[in-house]
Amino acid sequence: MKNIDWSPWLIRMSQGDEEAFRTVYEETREHAYRLICYLSSSKEDAADIMSEVYIELLKSADKYRPEQPFTAWFNGLIVRQVRNWKRKSWRLYRIVEKVKLLADVSPDRKAEAELSAVGDQLELLPILRKLPLKAREIIVLRYYQDCSMEEIAALLEIPLGTVKSRHHYALKQLRRQFEEVQG
């Protein structure tokens, strides 16, 4: 990776300049890919993690401070995304195990766990998009960001009871839509 002043590029990127993003991507992609391959346990995941790295780079370009070395800052971003990916994989494993354990539990809890597992495995994005925004927020924060119900209530500045009712409603809607897709 070239030793250049990245600040102007990152500022332009944070302002939506696509050319700046392309330049930063072209100059950093080999470095990022190598580091991801070293850190991740699966080479098959490298391309997906790489996408996550550049999405996060777009989101956090405005947080870069010129007094810090770009390479160190960028490496930190890569390491965090690899960790997030591993955590997501581990969460999928735990959810699948939970589904197995909940086989004899109430239908609501079992359905919730099954939906979580299916969501991570089959990408529920098209089905999620059909949910109203308030319900979608709860599902994304709960299952994709690993937030507790209390954290969601604080984050959205709504009562815990409202979070729980929206969660219940969203799961019911997802179940119904998933069953329609399964046909």
TrEMBL record:
Biological processes, Gene Ontology terms: DNA-templated transcription initiation
Asked if the record carries the keyword ATP-binding, the reply is no
The chain positions of domain RNA polymerase sigma-70 region read 25-91, 128-175
Q: Which terms does the record give in the GO molecular function aspect?
A: DNA binding; sigma factor activity
Which SUPFAM superfamilies does UniProt cross-reference here?
Sigma2 domain of RNA polymerase sigma factors, Sigma3 and sigma4 domains of RNA polymerase sigma factors
Q: Name one Pfam family in it.
A: Sigma70_r2
Q: Gene3D superfamilies given for it?
A: 1.10.1740.10, Winged helix-like DNA-binding domain superfamily/Winged helix DNA-binding domain
Q: Where are the transmembrane segments?
A: none
Q: Provide this UniProt record's keywords sorted from A to Z.
A: DNA-binding, Sigma factor, Transcription, Transcription regulation
Respond yes or no to whether keyword Protein transport is given for this record.
Answer: no
Q: Where is the signal peptide?
A: none
> What InterPro entries does the database record attribute to this sequence?
RNA_pol_sigma-70-like, RNA_pol_sigma-70_dom, RNA_pol_sigma70_r2, RNA_pol_sigma70_r4, RNA_pol_sigma_r2, RNA_pol_sigma_r3/r4-like, WH-like_DNA-bd_sf
* UniProt feature coiled coil, ranges: none
Protein family per UniProt: Belongs to the sigma-70 factor family. ECF subfamily.
The protein here is known as RNA polymerase sigma factor
* Organismal lineage: Bacteria, Bacillati, Bacillota, Bacilli, Bacillales
